[in-house]
UniProtKB/TrEMBL annotation:
Domain Multidrug resistance protein MdtA-like barrel-sandwich hybrid stretches: 70-209
Limits of the Multidrug resistance protein MdtA-like alpha-helical hairpin domain: 111-180
Key word Coiled coil present: yes
Domain YknX-like C-terminal permuted SH3-like positions: 307-374
Species for this entry: Pseudomonas fluorescens
Keyword Lyase attributed: no
Taxonomy, superkingdom: Bacteria
Protein name: Multidrug resistance protein MdtA
Length: 392
């Protein structure tokens, strides 16, 4: 009996040890040792650009409007029948080109009548002058009274005055006759007609026949904040032609429509808006700028020489400053920068070196020290560009 108890005890211990060994083995295979090496984190795909150095123009952006330098309403200066409009709507005309012809028969007849009257008066003056000469000879020998001599002198003076008046009448008729033919006062484009051939028009009519608008060169007007005034004045005082460059872009798609120069700063600041008006002249040989068209202007106000330049999309905004993701040894690090100037495409910064590699796309999953894989833009585009990273 005692031997049987000892046997049972040994059997229980053996079974317990076996269970522990089996459990330990299962644990070993199901839960690997914590000392095993963890897998390295996946690289973040990014697109990069190199920090460059170059001269960067400083641009002032504003909404502007196209204005014609000269716009003329074509009107008749005489009353009469409109016989001919030899130009078409929308046609480009040269200065001096015939635009309209009025019925001139009545004015031509009046001119001939005025000339005939002057001729009659001239003949009378010749006769009166000869008589005056004879009266003076007779008066010298007391053969004629002083009264008759005085009357003849008055007649000659009267006829001379009549000649001057008739000369003015002839001249006025000649001017009226020239007004029956209307010539273009400028190079420009003909607008829509308001009257047609065969219409009777008057000089007092409120409605013009049509208009002619100069398109090349053309004027650009805009209004800028008064804080820009010192900068604008400095531009106007520079003698070099490279300053104050004015470019006109389409408000629809940004296409460059023309280029010229700033010509004028208005003589006052608007008290209502706090802005000052500016005016420039732009070459427009292709007619891409149209009077009263709304545009976007870029005024070159200066230059950053030999500046550090990065793509504008590489800039991120942190809690305290702007920064970029700089690549070093295959890893990304947040690099604070000071932005000196930025437009829609590039930015001038301080805090980097020329040649540094910076991230332009794919930064939404970046953390400082993250391993990166440089890829093409299409792959990095999967990283949402609109996401904003924050400086950690």
């Amino acid at each position: 009996m005692p031997h049987f108890k000892i046997y049972r005890t040994l059997l229980s211990v053996s079974l317990s040890l076996g269970s522990l060994m089996i459990a330990g083995g299962a644990t070993y295979w199901l839960w690997p040792s914590q000392t095993a090496t963890a897998p390295s984190p996946a690289s973040v795909p990014v697109t990069t650009a190199e920090v460059g150095r170059r001269d960067v123009p400083v641009l002032i952006h504003a909404i502007g409007y196209v204005r014609s330098l000269r716009s003329v309403d074509i009107r008749s200066q005489v009353d009469g029948l409109l016989l001919e409009l030899p130009v078409s709507e929308g046609q480009f005309v040269k200065k001096g080109e015939l635009l309209a012809r009025m019925d001139d028969r009545g004015i031509a007849a009046a001119l001939e009548h005025a000339k005939a009257q002057r001729a009659v008066t001239q003949a009378q003056l010749v006769s009166a002058t000869l008589d005056l000469k004879r009266y003076r000879e007779l008066a010298s020998i007391n053969a004629v009274s002083a009264q008759i001599l005085d009357q003849q002198l008055a007649l000659v003076a009267q006829l001379q005055a009549t000649i001057k008046s008739q000369d003015a009448t002839v001249l006025a008729s000649q001017v009226q006759l020239t007004h029956t033919r209307i010539h273009s006062p400028l190079d420009g484009r003909v607008g829509i007609r308001n009257v047609h051939e065969g219409s009777y028009v008057r000089a007092s009519d409120a409605q013009a026949l049509f208009s002619v608008v100069q398109l090349d060169p053309i004027s650009i007007e805009s209004a800028l904040p008064q804080s820009r005034l010192p900068q604008l004045q400095a531009l106007m005082n520079r003698p070099d032609t490279s300053s104050a460059v004015l470019r006109a872009h389409s408000a629809h798609d940004g296409t460059l429509l023309g280029e010229g120069r700033l010509e004028l700063i208005d003589n006052r600041v608007s008290a209502d808006t706090g802005t000052v008006r500016i005016k420039g002249t732009v070459a427009n040989p292709l007619g891409r700028l149209w009077p009263d068209q709304s545009i976007v202007i870029n005024l070159q106000a200066g230059t950053f020489p030999d500046a550090l330049v990065v793509p504008q999309r590489s800039l991120r905004q942190g809690a305290h400053s702007a920064f970029v993701w700089r690549i070093s040894d295959g890893k990304a690090f947040a690099q604070p920068v000071q932005v000196e100037y930025a437009d829609t495409e590039i930015a001038v910064v301080d805090g980097l070196e020329a040649g540094d590699q910076i991230v332009t796309d794919g930064y939404s999953r970046l953390t400082s020290g993250a391993t990166v894989k440089i890829v093409q833009s299409a792959e990095a585009a999967q990283e949402t560009v609109a996401d904003r990273s924050t400086l950690r």
